[in-house]
Fold:
Amino acid sequence: MSSRELWADGRLRAAWAARDWPTLIRRYRALAGISQSRFGELVGMDQGYVSRLERGRARVTSEDVVARFVEGLHVPNELGGVRRSAHDEPQWAPSPELRERIAHASSTGRTDLRTADWIHQVLAAHRRAEDEVGGQELWPVVRSQLDTVTQLIPQASGEAADRLMLLAAEHAHWLSWVAWQARRVGPALTWIDLAHGWAVDAGHVDMASWAQRVRAYYSLSHGDPVRALRTAEAARYAGPGPLSPAAEAVAVHQAAMAAAACAERDKARRLADEAHELAVRAPDEPDRPGWLYWLSPERARLQHADASYACRQWAEAAAGFREALPALAGYPRDYAYYRARLEEAERRA
Structure:
């Protein structure tokens, strides 16, 4: 595995962001399959010092030592500016400088998109790792990546600028989701609104729809089902051109959940059936939008069962949860959520 591939690992990047040297050394050595002696050769340290660092019996206090890690382990450029201890609070709100960069996309120009392609790859890894690593640990990493992406935009034009805007929107969505989980409602709404605006600017209707769908979820979670239903229904008509089946499926499912919360159960059941049919028509993962990597047939079945649960169709909900729940064995947070739903549905059936 090359150094570049190693640094796509979410836990390794999170350890770097937190300056968690024991975890970083253990994770790097495990991924690379190297000894402490070989790790020491890479960073210019003897094996004994590496061992003490890995066991937490020594600390890194010198920027010169950090620089050895950067050079010897080929830390990616977008992580170079990450400076955070494990106890620091994330800076939740977007900065004015970030918006300035986005506002100055050029009508002409060229930019090297290799960095953007790499960041797209690691963001995909972050999505998958977030359930295991935790969003707050990865927050400074993703913020640093977003800064790198937006710094490329003023030199880009045409399709290249649109790709960068979409990548910025994907980062803003991720940051919004993590802020929401941390109960930072204001920043979460700010980031998702940025994601929607950038997706519209890029002409990417699937991401624009997804951002609206997420906002509908926030409204429903915050006890406002009427606004959630309006927003979810608007997500189906996010811009010129049709949505992909996967993007439309999740928008329609969110509308079904909001309709159920508004006591419009006939509408909710109809929308839930429509969402499931759309999800089944969605292509395989490589051909779906990256943020919908999780929309497998089993997930579609779970969503349909969740809508049945929201409509108080307990027996139908329990059957759906029971059938599809084993597919979530590798996703502990989601498994716990649906397992609790299953137990409640069985109790009420």
Summary: The chain has 18 helices and no strands.
